[in-house]
């Protein structure tokens, strides 16, 4: 098989686009996220992350967003380019009616969000 026809794994979604899609799915505005994080993440800073101007936000920012959005912190760390070697993280609050316990890949999570938006648009 030559290099042109080799199947390559799908690239990871861009961190900024991923966070924007999660925020939109949660129905939150930038200022609402700022308030929910108790101003740990300003709306301007989150906007820069979502628009790709900031590619590697601090772990503290990612942790705050993971809690507010109820998503996997380790996944955000990997998407931001941090090496995650330990599962000794503080557990997230319980999430109800969610797929977090399935340990979805970023690609699967993005596809599920896309499908959910489609389903909601048909109502």
TrEMBL record:
Entries under SMART domains matching the protein: HTH_XRE (SM00530)
Biological classification of the source: Bacteria, Pseudomonadati, Pseudomonadota, Alphaproteobacteria, Hyphomicrobiales
Family annotation (InterPro entries): Cro/C1-type_HTH, Lambda_DNA-bd_dom_sf
Highest rank taxon of the organism: Bacteria
Membrane-spanning intervals of the chain: none
Pfam families: HTH_31 (PF13560)
Organism: Rhizobium aouanii
HTH cro/C1-type domain boundaries: 19-76
Gene3D superfamilies linked to this entry: lambda repressor-like DNA-binding domains
Name of protein: Helix-turn-helix transcriptional regulator
């Amino acid at each position: 098989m030559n290099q042109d026809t080799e199947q390559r794994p799908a690239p990871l979604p861009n961190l900024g686009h991923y966070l924007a899609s999660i925020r939109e799915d949660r129905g939150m505005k930038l200022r609402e996220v700022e308030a929910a994080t108790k101003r740990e993440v300003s709306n301007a800073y989150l906007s820069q992350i979502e628009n790709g101007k900031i590619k590697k936000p601090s772990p503290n920012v990612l942790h705050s967003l993971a809690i507010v959005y109820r998503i996997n912190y380790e996944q955000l760390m990997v998407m931001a380019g941090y090496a995650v070697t330990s599962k000794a993280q503080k557990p997230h609050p319980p999430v109800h009616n969610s797929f977090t316990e399935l340990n979805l890949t970023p690609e699967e999570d993005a596809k599920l969000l896309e499908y959910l938006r489609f389903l909601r648009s048909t109502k």
